[in-house]
Amino acid sequence: MGTETEETDDLPVLSAPAEPINDVVASPDALAHTLTLLRNGSGPVAVDAERAQGYRYSGRAYLIQLRRVGAGTFLVDPTAFGDEGGELRPLAEAIEDEEWIIHAATQDIPCLVEAGMVPRRLFDTELAGRLLGHPRVALGTLIEVYFGQRLLKEHSAADWSTRPLPEDWLNYAALDVELLPELRDRLADDLAEAGKDEWARQEFAWLAERATVRPAPRQDPWRRTSGIHAVRSPAGMAIVRELWQARDEIARRLDKAPGRILQDKAIAELATHAKPGRNDLRSVPGFQRRNTRRYESDWVAALERAQALSRAQLPPLHLPSDAPPPPRSWENRDPEAYARYLALREVMAILAEEHHLPAENLLSPDSWRRLAWQPPEDRSAAGVDAFLVGQQARDWQREITAAPLADALANAL
């Protein structure tokens, strides 16, 4: 297993790919040539994607990187092949029977699927690092640990919708997949040595199965506005909602990140005012930014809509939820549940340390908190196991946790 390295400044920098970067694939002919080379390669395919988070409204991929032993590295511009992903499906079909190596798959899978690329099998190098107990699992850190080289990440937050893409950005993008095949092999060896290869197999299969599962639309997405906790009235919540929706409409139309139109903290600050008007709006610094001020009439109209609502039309301060309340409130609300929470938390910490991995990867915190808050009638190991099945816990997770959690429930009081 690799050895963690704390001092990285003295490590050699991985500054350029081993091979010259091919031209960006942006035409049907270039794509056809890429497919031929990929099919003639061997082994799994490293896949990465670059988005334009913080710049664009869309979460689409603006560059897709692929690397395969014997084929080389390819940088594909998905924007050159339409918005629906149909024209890129031949690329997915060329590698669909192979294992895809992705770092932090949950981040990249949605935009890959949108581009028509759906993995059937994958190996997540970040998740592998977590299962192995590495304290830091960023790609750059794992490269340092396993190869003794430093991977610069200066363009990770760049606007990848920029065209043409600068040469140093393309160099950076190619390096993101340069060592993924070899990193995958080294992590796989360590997983086997640690007896965790079956755990990884189940985790990766679960990720692949969920690749095309669209999450249910979030109810009231405007409630995720940063700083909304300072808004203490339904009238204030209505202001947050109307401003958020006005901003979202503008951002969607312009394909710009909402925060570049109007910052969350400005919305929340204005919503704390009693019946705010144009003058109140102008007193909030966030509304005086140049990109925000040009839409002042939209913000004023949103305030007017919010203030025209009847009491019955105002949104509630909080939505009803079947999730357990925050654990900090349990001691007063339900002392018995709190005792179960403390017992289960201790068991999870012990098991995580014993198996050398983060507790959240051993079992999702939401799963065992639900178990503590409202345990099943059957609190035996079999009953807890059945409960965890309903929480989508994988087999390996239940094998480790079900019996100890059942014992903790029995001895909590």
Characterise this structure.
This protein has helices spanning 28-40, 89-95, 105-114, 125-131, 139-147, 167-178, 180-193, 197-209, 234-254, 258-261, 264-271, 278-283, 290-293, 296-307, 330-333, 335-355, 359-362, 365-373, 381-390, 395-410; strands spanning 42-50, 63-69, 72-76, 99-102, 121-124. The protein folds into three domains: 28-209, 2-Layer Sandwich (Nucleotidyltransferase, domain 5); 221-313, Orthogonal Bundle (DNA polymerase, domain 1), CATH 1.10.150.80; 327-410, Orthogonal Bundle (DNA polymerase, domain 1). β2 and β3 (72-76) form a beta hairpin. The protein is flat and about 65 Å long. The chain has 20 helices and five strands. It is of the alpha/beta class. The longest helix is centred in the middle third of the chain and has 21 residues, at 234-254. Helices cover 49% and strands 7% of the residues.
Using brief descriptors, characterize the structure shown.
RNaseH-like_sf, DNA polymerase, domain 1, HRDC_dom, single chain, RNase_D-like, flat, five-stranded mixed β-sheet, 3 domains, alpha/beta, disordered N terminus, Nucleotidyltransferase, domain 5, 413 residues, HRDC domain-containing protein
What's the short version?
The protein is α/β, with parallel strands linked by helices and 413 residues long. The protein has 20 helices and five strands.
